[in-house]
Amino acid sequence: MVKNTDIREIKKSAVELISDNWALVTAGKKDSFNTMTVSWGGLGEIWGKDAAFIFIRPQRHTLKFIDSEEMFTICFFKEEYKKALTFCGRNSGRDVDKVKETGLTPVFLDDAVYFDEACIVLKCRKMARYDLSPDGFLDSDIESNYSNGDYHKMFIAEIVETLVTD
Ligand SMILES: Cc1cc2nc3c(=O)[nH]c(=O)nc-3n(C[C@H](O)[C@H](O)[C@H](O)COP(=O)(O)O)c2cc1C
C-alpha cells in the first residue's frame, strides 16, 4: 500500500538513507528507462524548496535519461534489496536488463518511473545541473576520485512527491 506523505515525515537521517543504505536513481518513460545505484548525494532545502542533490558521472547510461526528462525518482529500499542495488551499481543498462536480472517491478507514472519494492520514493523535478570542475576543489584530496577526468554532473531537484509504503 503506497501513500503520499511529506518528506519531513521521513525520520531516518539522509546520511543513513543515501550513504549507508544506498538508493536507485531512475529516469525515463515506460518504453525506455534506466536505473542506477547512488550513494553520494543529499537531501535538504534550496531556493525555498525541499530538494535532493545527486551526483552522476558522465559515463553512466542513466545520465542520458536524467538529461532528457524533467523528473527522476530516488528509491530507497530495505536491507533485503541490497543485492539488487549492488547489481544495479555494478552493471550498466547498456549491457544488461536490470529489471529482468533483479526482479524489481517498475511502476510507471505519467512522468516518472519508480520501483514497487521501494519503501520510500522521492519524485524529483530537475531545477539545476552543474558540471563539477576541479577549479572549485578546495581540498586537494578530491582529485583522487577523478583519475579519468570523469567529473560528476550535479543535479539539484525539487522533491515534488514523497511516497512511502506502510
Ligand atoms: C554503492 C554504489 C554507489 C554508487 N554511487 C554512485 C553515484 O553516486 N554516482 C555515480 O555516478 N555512480 C555511482 N555508482 C556507480 C553506478 O551505479 C554504476 O556505474 C552503474 O552501473 C551505472 O549504471 P548505468 O550505466 O546503467 O547508468 C555507485 C555504485 C555503487 C555500487
Give an overview of the whole structure:
- With 166 residues, the chain is an alpha+beta fold.
- The chain has a single domain (2-165), classed as Electron Transport, Fmn-binding Protein, Chain A (Pnp Oxidase, Chain A).
- The protein has 4 helices and 10 strands, in the order E-H-E-E-E-E-H-E-H-H-E-E-E-E.
- The strands form 2 sheets. Strands 1, 2, 3, 4, 5, 6, 9 and 10 form an 8-stranded antiparallel sheet that branches.
- Strand 7 and strand 8 (113-115) form a beta hairpin.
- The model has no long low-confidence stretch (mean pLDDT 97).
- Flavin mononucleotide binds at residues 22, 34, 36-40, 55-57, 60-62, 86, 89-94.
In brief:
This protein has four helices and ten strands, in the order βαββββαβααββββ.
Percent helix: 10-25%
Strand content: 35-45%
Number of domains: 1
Number of strands: 10
CATH superfamily: Electron Transport, Fmn-binding Protein, Chain A
* Major sheet: 8 strands, antiparallel
What are the defining features of this structure?
166 residues; alpha+beta; Pnp Oxidase, Chain A; 8-stranded antiparallel beta sheet; 4 helices; globular
